[in-house]
Each structure stands twice: as structure tokens, then as C-alpha cells.
Structures
1.
Amino acid sequence: MPKKQLYPVNPDRTEPWNDLPDLPIDPALYRDVEIYEQLGQAKEALALLAGRSIAIPNPAMLINSITLQEAKVSSAIENVFTTDDELYKAVSDSKSDGEAPGPTKEVLRYREALWEGYHYLKEHGRFDRDYFIKLYRIIQESGDGIRPPFARTFIPMGGTGPNAGKPAYTPPRGKGIVEAKLDNLIEFLNSEESQPDDVLLKMCIAHYQFEVIHPFRDGNGRAGRIMNLHIITRNHRLELPILYLSRYILEHKQDYYEYLSGVSQRGDWKSWILYMLRAVEWTSQLTLRKVNDIIVSKEEILQVLREQTDVRRPEDLAEAIFTQPYIKVNHLTDRGLYAENTARNYLNELAELQILEKKVIRGKHYYINPALVEILSY
Ligand SMILES: Nc1ncnc2c1ncn2[C@@H]1O[C@H](COP(=O)(O)OP(=O)(O)O)[C@@H](O)[C@H]1O
Ligand SMILES: [Mg+2]
């Protein structure tokens, strides 16, 4: 007797896949020893990161800089590239600054979407269509929403081979179809009892599903990766969206596309789920290392401030110079830490102690924290 097909495969990647199955999928598709072993490892690594980040007195110090890296790398997956220098400068100048190059602004919009979505879910408690539309509009700086039935959206093959640019996959389309598929995904995300029982497995399945629904004309990769982090925070596996998950995906980009296609073309859920769980494990460890290094580095500087200077409120100053890599006087005055003259004097003093590096770019004075730049760069 032929084996029962657990997952129907997409018959034609050039035609809209309107028969894309709804969630949940059959648990037999992930009931597998290797998957559960890898799930255990991913959960453990994530729990260590969660524990460490709860113990930080001022997590705001981390969330600024670490989410910035996530934004940069998730955008790079979509070939939106910016340099650290441009990015740090733009962050330092705040978003009102119109000078930043297009890709840099795009990266900052990703980070904004990450935060806006996070707050939206805190407020509403549940995923809904508006949540996704919000992400999309911020990422794409656009006023529209779910793609209309006439939009002939498809995912092109990459590379430079003879098939480059031809459809690798064509998402569902037609009146109300995308909305119905998205609503089904939303129900899956909000449901407490539906299979699978673990939220990381849920995230793996939901990310695939979101990408194959491809509800927007563009920005789906980024919106889907932001959603991943929000699935984790909404379920309190992490309190803040600081996991640097896209880093693994960027470094294993070919596999990412391969395994997404593998589900649609062969029903190969196992490879996809294992891939995403490895991403969680690896990036949890990487993020933990960064968090620890930031804390240690800040403590070292605090010690120097206490022993070698007379600055007032040394703890606050040490924390302030780790909230972003390029510090300016107004960052200290805006927080009401010090008066302007005092702030400038302190930053100059830190530069003399070689804790910060003073740099003038287009007439603006920046005080670069090289220790933080180094931690963010690996
Ligand atoms: N074969 C595939 N099946 C489903 N999703 C895919 C496939 N290949 C790529 N993707 C997803 O599509 C995303 C790109 O879609 P796009 O809307 O252009 O997003 P962005 O603008 O953020 O790049 C990729 O990042 C990936 O998540
Ligand atoms: Mg794109």
C-alpha cells in the first residue's frame, strides 16, 4: 500500500498555490527524534539567554544596540546593505536626520517595525491582520496593505543561471484568498491549545506559512522574521526581542531558500524545522555572548570612572555610553543626566582616557565606543 501523503506538495511553482494547506499541520510531520533533540537544545540555549537578560538592571542598554544588528542583517538577506559606520551615525543622529542613505533608512525602519510590533502585541495581546499590515507599512514605508488579487507576485529564483528571475514559487491569489490564509495563520498563532505544543515548533511552522502566503507585494521576508521574534516574546520565552536570529539565516541563506522550497515541493518539514531550531540555538548562544561581553565591558569602564575620575553618577554615564556605539552630547542631556557643559566635559574626559574615540563627521562631534563597536561586529 502506498504511504499516505501527509502533506500535499505544490504541483506547479509557476501557478498560484491556492491549495496551500491551512494550519495546523499533521503532528506526524514533526514527531521525530532528531527534531525533539534539536528542540531541546534550542530551548535550553534560549532559556539561558532569557535568564541572563532578566538579570540586567537596565535592559534598554542592550535592546538598542542588539536589535540594530538584527535589523541590519535581516535587511542584508534582502540585499539591503548598509555599513556599520553609516548605521551608527544615523542612529546617533536620530531618525529626523534626512542625510542617511536609503538602505540605512530601510534598516532603521526594520528596527522601528520590530519595536512597533512588539508594543502592539503588548497592548493587544494577540496577533491580527493590523499587526501584519503595520509591520509591512513601516518596513516598506507604504500606505497600502495586503496585496490585491491582480498583483502578479511571485518569488524569483536567485543566482545568475538560466532560470534566474523565473518563479521559484508563486503564492496564492484571488479574491479574499490571501486574507483567508492569513486569518488561518493568525488563529494558529493566537491559539493556546492547537498543535504543536511547543512555541518554537510553532514559530518554525508559522514562518514557513507566512512566507508561502506572502501576503504583501514586498517585505515579506523581513516581516516574517520580525514575526518570529514576536512569537518568542509574546510567549515569554524572551521578554525583549533581542535574539539575533537573522544572523544564522544570512550565513546559511542558500539553505534557507532550499528548505522553504523543500516543504512546498517535497513536504520536507523535517529539514526546515531542524534548520530553524539550529538557528535559534546558535543565535541564542551568540546573543548571550554579546550580552555578557557588553555587561563585562561596561563594568570595566565603570571601574575606571570610579577610580580615575570625579564624574557624578558614574553608573548612569557608563550605561549611557553602551546604549549606542556613537554617542553625542545631546544623548546625555536629553536623558536629563547632565547639563550640556558637564556632558561635553565628561565625554572629552572619556576620550582622554581612551575609553571613547572622538570623531568629527560633517561638523558633528561623535564619541565612539570602540568596545561596543567591537562586540557588535562579531
Ligand atoms: N521558495 C520559497 N518559498 C517560500 N518563501 C520563500 C521562498 N524563497 C524565499 N522565500 C521568502 O521570501 C522572502 C523574500 O520575499 P520579499 O517579499 O521580497 O521580502 P523582503 O522584501 O523582505 O525581501 C525571503 O526572505 C524568504 O523568507
Ligand atoms: Mg524584497
2.
Amino acid sequence: MFNLESTLISDELKFFPFICYVFLPHRVYLLRGNHESKYCTSVYGFEKEVLIKYGDKGKHVYRKCLGCFEGLPLATIIAGNVYTAHGGLFRSIPATPSKRSKKKNRRISLTPEINPFSLGSLEELSKARRSVLDPPWEGQNLIPGDVLWSDPSMSPGLSPNTERGIGLLWGPDCTEEFLKKFNLKLIIRSHEGPDAREKRPGFAGMDEGYTIDHTVETGKLITLFSAPDYPQFQATVERYNNKGAYVVLKPPEFNNPEFHSFEAILPRPKVQAYYDYEEVIDSDEELDLASMVTTPSDIIVST
Ligand SMILES: [Mn+2]
């Protein structure tokens, strides 16, 4: 199992699993990551690279890629034991209140101690509308954004992921609740490379390509990061030189991962960035939410 981050074509590692998936659709399972969106592919150079490399067919190719991204599954359960997703856990979305109760809720929401978040169920996840070019951070369809953008925390409970502007932070208690409730043993997610981990005190670094984040009664939470020497483009000469990793899960339980770390080939082959990485924020943090709004005109352009 690999868990990658970059969406640049230049990063061929990303496209290798995709090619495998195209040729062996019943053998290879590919999950969606937060970079498989209109917003991230436009900010981090993928769109520009496609438009330049494919010339007058560029727009068509880019639209087809977005169509693939939109159709990718959000999560999998392996052998009934292992939950895998790019970001992680997700909230429960209560049914839309009627106009009358909405008014009532507004009054209630003044009480600060009420926690509006509770963990979502696998049934809610399976019913979520995943066909969105950019998972919304507001409104009713919040599960896709949570699954793709959330991060674990060492503090208990569920809270908004203010650093990213979308998704949640979940504590070890949520990991335990989720594993126990759905009779699972292991959560494997990605989404945090060495640069993101540097800003997360309490968590291990990503030097080896994986970390064990929560060890709870029922099982474990693991972060698996398969992009070595990440990020690909940096304004500074100094690099993280992190290893990437993949895991092998073996029958019958599939819940005791065998970790394999690997190094990047150095020096990296020379490739173009197709975005201004000295200006654009380092990782995929602090979303520019305003530019992420998919307006009806965007949809027309992109279909
Ligand atoms: Mn990510």
C-alpha cells in the first residue's frame, strides 16, 4: 500500500499506481487524496503542466483528469479490519433542521460548551456525495472534506482543523471510538509530510516515511507517507531528505503492517515546477478558501 501526496505529473511515482489501476482495475485500488481536486491541481502546477504539455488537447486532458479524481473512492475497509483514507476520520452530519428549528438552534449555539462535532458512521460515509471537484468546507456535504483533509491530534475530541481551514482534528479517544464502534483494528492515513510534521509538536517526524500516532486499546493509527525527499520543490537549499514508505498487510488479519522505507534517487532528475513555489505556501496548509469556491461558471468551464 502506497500513500502519495504530490499531484505533479513530473512526480512519476504518482502516476505509476494510476497506470497500474488502469491496466488492473480489479487488482489495484486507488483512493482520492486532497490534491485530487480542482483547487490543489490549479495551485500546485498540475493544471499548467497538463495545458503546456498537451497543447490544444490540454483543456480536454485536464478535464478528464478532474473527472477521474472526482470519481476516486474516498476510503476503503480492508478485510473488515483496516480503515484507510488520505486524511482520516470524519464528522456526523445531522439531518438539515427545519426552518423553525434552525431559529431555535441559533439561540442554542450561544452556549459555548456544546460541542457540535461527533464522529460519523461508515453508513454516513458510504452515503456522502463524493463527486465534488473541491470538497466543500461549509454546508451539508462535509464528509468528503473531512476524509481528505483531517489530521490526528494528541488532544482528545473533535475540533475544526483551523491550520488547514478545512477538515477536523481528532484525538486518540476518537481513534478508539471509531475502531471499537466499527470493529476495526487499524487506521492508515497519509496527508502529513516532513514539512507538516515539523509544525506538529507531540508527533514524530516523517524521516522514515511513517509514524505510529495513536496506540489505543482496540488498535492503532498510522500515518504513511510514500513521497521521499518531499516537498519536490523548495525555495531553500536545505531539504528534509525524508524517506518514503509503503506497508505490506498480510492475511488473515491484515492488521499488522510490515513497514518498508525507501530513499529518493539523488540527485533528483531535473524537472520544471509549473508553479511559483517560492511564492506559493510550502505545503497544502492554510487553504485560500475564497479561491476554492467552485462557482457555477467554473463547472461550465470544466465539464
Ligand atoms: Mn494531503
